[in-house]
Design brief:
Length: about 140
């Protein structure tokens, strides 16, 4: 009985919680790159550099994910961004993710890839845009 309730009621809701928390944390990387907040020892990038483009994706893509709007395509793009970031910026430093600082990039990559397949969950703008008969309870 309790297991069934966890599967049917709470699992979809926790999917939404995972999406929201991951997106808000991800947005922080974009605000740091583009807006200098929270302050960092690295100056803000030129907007048309790889880091600047990543900052735009992180800030605006993170905002779309936090709202749960266009979750699947946005999560797929951000998953690709994190895979690209890992192989370009982190992997050349060391084979081991904990040594090359890429463990967060790997984790974001696979969380976003999961969201690309699972969707935004019931607490998302995508869920409210569905037809009423297909909308989750």
């Amino acid at each position: 009985m309790i297991i069934r309730q966890l599967e049917t009621v709470w699992a979809p809701r926790m999917l939404s919680v995972l999406r929201i928390v991951a997106a808000l944390l991800f947005m922080e990387h974009g605000t740091q790159k583009l807006l200098g907040f929270p302050p960092s020892s690295n100056p803000g990038p030129a907007l048309l550099s790889l880091s600047g483009i990543a900052g735009v994706l992180e800030l605006f893509g993170g905002a779309l994910l936090a709202a749960g709007l266009f979750t699947r395509p946005v999560a797929f793009i951000l998953s690709g961004e994190m895979a690209f970031a890992y192989w370009i910026a982190h992997a050349p430093r060391s084979f081991f993710p904990i040594l090359n600082g890429g463990d967060a990039a790997i984790l974001y990559c696979f969380v976003f890839l999961y969201l690309a397949f699972a969707g935004g969950g019931p607490w998302s703008m995508d869920a409210t845009r569905k037809a009423p008969e297909t909308r989750p309870a």
